[in-house]
């Protein structure tokens, strides 16, 4: 009887254990096409920009921003957008309230989200826009 009870306790204990499978977070945004830099570091983006001789596209967003989520869902997954960004830019997504994103918000006096920036390899602003951009508007901005 004690063997059955012991076996039952072991089975119950094992069935309540959760097996954690490893996850990868190589892409900070859930879209499929843009090859976002695997780091949220502006210095890494500048280094990569120099290596590949491309400008840097920076998307600054926040977790609570409705238009940021709308761009993530409707604009960034568009093949035209991912082709334009991947071909011409090092893509970086930053949280405007943390780390390098918060520093850029402060340094550049950004007043809203989402904000899109095009930077050169030294981090100088080439272009900037604050607010939602449709697919066609973003394509125009990227030119």
Protein model, in words:
This protein has 143 residues and is α+β, with helices and mostly antiparallel strands. It has one domain: Glutaredoxin (3-Layer(aba) Sandwich), CATH 3.40.30.10. 43% of the residues lie in helices and 17% in strands. The protein is built from six helices and four strands. The protein has a four-stranded mixed β-sheet with strand order 2-1-3-4. Strand 3 and strand 4 form a beta hairpin. The chain is globular and about 65 Å long. About 15% of the residues have low confidence.
Q: Note poorly predicted spans.
A: 11-31
| Strand arrangement across the biggest beta sheet | 2-1-3-4
CATH-scheme architecture: 3-Layer(aba) Sandwich
The count of strands amounts to 4
Largest sheet composition: 4 strands, mixed
What is the domain total for the residues? Answer: 1
Q: Work out the helix count.
A: 6
CATH topology annotation: Glutaredoxin
Termini, distance in Å? 77 Å
Q: What is the CATH C-level name?
A: Alpha Beta
What is the percentage of strand-forming residues?
A: 15-25%
SSE string, helices as H and strands as E = HHEHHEHEEH
What would you call the shape?
globular
Rg, nearest Å: 21 Å
- Please estimate the helix content: 40-55%
Classified in CATH, the superfamily is Glutaredoxin
Structural class: alpha+beta
Arithmetic mean pLDDT: 84
């Amino acid at each position: 009887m004690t063997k059955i009870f012991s076996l039952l306790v072991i089975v119950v204990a094992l069935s309540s254990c959760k097996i954690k499978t490893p996850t990868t977070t190589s892409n900070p945004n859930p879209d499929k096409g843009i090859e976002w830099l695997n780091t949220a570091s502006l210095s890494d983006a500048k280094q990569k920009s120099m290596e590949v001789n491309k400008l840097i596209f920076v998307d600054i967003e926040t977790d609570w921003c409705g238009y940021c989520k709308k761009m993530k869902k409707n604009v960034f997954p568009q093949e035209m957008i991912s082709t334009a960004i991947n071909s011409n830019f090092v893509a970086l997504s930053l949280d405007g309230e943390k780390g390098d994103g918060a520093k850029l918000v402060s340094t550049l006096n950004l007043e809203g989200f989402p904000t899109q920036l095009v930077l050169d390899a030294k981090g100088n602003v080439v272009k900037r826009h604050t607010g939602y951009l449709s697919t066609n508007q973003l394509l125009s901005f990227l030119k």
